[in-house]
Specification:
The protein has about 160 residues and is an alpha+beta fold. The protein has a domain of about 80 residues. Helix content is about 55%, strand content about 20%. The chain contains five helices and three strands, in the order βββααααα. It has a three-stranded antiparallel beta sheet, with helices on one face. Strand 2 and strand 3 form a beta hairpin.
């Protein structure tokens, strides 16, 4: 989440525009700078504020992808658990073949490790206890097949 945004105008250029430097700070202390040229009469505040949702979306997506690439788990900084779960559900739903199996393994491994509970994942998928059993069984099968592929060796 962006907690602070400021901009500074630089010197006027030959073509009449000014350099604008934006600095956005996120809740984890990260700094995100943007430089551009604009007319002095432009609404620099509006431009800066319009950029904030795009920065936040990019930070959340990067955090999501980093989590998927990790064996462990670290607390979320740029999104809520519900937002993460929605991303995970959408990614799983839209995945195909090997990515689906990889995600199934990731989900079940994280349940097994205690990072998530069955109930949390089930709720993210919008399923009740009874309806969760079939997708979880499919995930277990996909995980086994994926692990088999990972351990395969040529001659």
């Amino acid at each position: 989440m962006i907690v602070s945004s400021v901009f500074r105008l630089g010197v006027k250029q030959r073509d009449g525009r000014v350099r604008v430097h934006e600095l956005h700070e996120d809740s984890a202390g990260g700094a995100h700078g943007f430089d551009y040229k604009a007319l002095p009469s432009a609404d620099h505040q509006a431009v800066m504020l319009a950029r904030v949702p795009r920065i936040e979306a990019a930070l959340a997506e990067a955090e999501f992808l980093e989590a998927l690439d990790s064996d462990g788990w670290k607390p979320l900084v740029h999104q809520t658990p519900a937002q993460f779960a929605a991303r995970l559900r959408a990614r799983y739903k839209d995945s195909s073949q090997i990515e689906c199996a990889k995600l199934a393994k990731w989900i079940l491994d994280h349940i097994d490790a205690g990072y998530f509970t069955d109930a949390q994942v089930r709720n993210a998928f919008g399923l009740n206890v009874t309806k969760w059993n079939a997708p979880k069984a499919k995930m277990s099968d996909l995980r086994a097949k994926y692990e088999s592929l990972l351990s395969a060796r040529g001659e």
